Amino acid sequence: MNRRQGIYFSVAFVVAAAVLRLIWVGDMEYKYDEYYMFSVTQMAGATDSWPMIGMESGASLRNPALSVWLFIVLKNLFSVTTPIGLTRAVMILNVLAVALVFLFAFRFVNDEEREGWLWAGALAAVNPAAIQLHRKIWAQSLLPLFSMLMIAGWWSRRRPWGAFLWGFLGACVGQIHMTGFFFSGALLLWTLVFDRFGERERRTWRTAADWKWWLIGSAVGATFLVSWILYVLNDAGARVAGMGNQSVLGLYFWRHWIVETLGVQAQYNIGPALFEDFLRSPVLFGAQTYVVGAAYLLIGLLALKTALGVARAMWERRATLTSLWIGRDSQSAFLSSMAFWGFGILLTASAIVIYRHYIVVAFPLTYLWLARAVLVDKYWGRRTLAVMVLAQACLGIAFLVFIHVHHGAAGGDYGVSYQWQRY
Q1: Domain residue spans in the chain?
Q2: Rounded-to-integer distance, Cα 137 and Cα 224, Å
Q3: Backbone angles phi, psi at 25, to 5 degrees
């Protein structure tokens, strides 16, 4: 698509992202985590001081304080007095995150790489998993905007401002949610090993970062960590839970990555009891349409087609598989490989149980990875992505309607939506 088409395309999907995130705010999830976070925002600075540590994570370690402070900032910035108001603030940040993908594509990415980023933005706008996670009072739900800004800094790592931004936000994303430590660590290691020591004859874009400013940014960002480090040293030594081999043997990271990126995660949210009803939805004039089931089938077939196309392309380029694995073709390829392999291997090697929402820190690289994989097919790539985006949009809309009609999903992880809870 040319630049004008790309701009129209971008505006349309930013609008779609806004509608899909800001509609029916009262249908939001509201369980203990959301209740805790909202309560802290109301008490901090009023009846209590700002907390010096965050809430407990799935690994039985409490998160750093920044995971709570950002919600307190949102509460003051938007004059929040209700859970709905705080959730709306999170939704707005995530609409900005989607918009930033498109802005980044036009401002920083060259013509050859841009189309992948535009399709990544479109997928991020309508993906059902993204819609669900972008509508929560949850620390993980704040990550997309900061991850995207960190990637923008990394992209301009030769410049002082870019290196500083990369270092600063690399130190901060882990304080929002601890998966950020693994993600920023993977980005650093992948860059140190493969950017600095790339093949000399193919160093077109592989140039050293401004490490002085990266270090300054990292040091500034790490100042928020002091109280958390003291907590870990004094109180958390033997309390880390959830260790084991199931995430390693089950390849949880890559399973979650694929399911979340394709947008076929609803069974977890809705629960098995209602999932069959969801597959038969929407119901029009009393008749089950099975549109959702058809969209699931279509996405599965397109994913299989894409996998076969990628396998064929890898076989044709088998002499350069190492370069393909690293992502030497472009900065976009480098980031995609870093996120899929570097982040995945680092997080899996930690032996913690990996949950589906741990993938959100890789925004928008999950969608860039999918877009680039589909675009391997030069003839059918755009058509395939167009159908995939349409199918995911159908699933996203159907999910919101289903939750709205059923007042949440009491039998699934979603639970009863906020406006239908009784206190």
Answers
A1: 3-420
A2: 21
A3: -60, -35
Residue 223 tokens read as 């100042």
Q: At what angle do helices 381-406 and 291-316 cross, to 10 degrees?
A: 150
Q: Of the candidates 135, 138, 143, 132, which has an alpha carbon nearest to the alpha carbon of residue 173?
A: 143
Q: Given a cut of 80, is residue 184 above it in pLDDT? A: yes
Distance of CA 370 to the CA centre of its chain: 13
One DSSP character per residue, 241-303 reads: --BSSHHHHTTHHHHHHHHHHHT--HHHHH-HHHHHHHHHPPEETTEE--HHHHHHHHHHHHH
Residue 196, pLDDT > 80, answer: no
- For residues 98 and 125, the answer to whether their CB atoms sit within 8 Å is yes
CB burial class (10 A; 0-12, 13-18, 19+) of residue 293? middle
* Residue 206 · residue 195 · CB < 8 Å: yes
pLDDT range class, residue 207, cuts 50, 70, 90 = low
Instruction: Return the higher-pLDDT residue of 269 and 208.
Output: 269
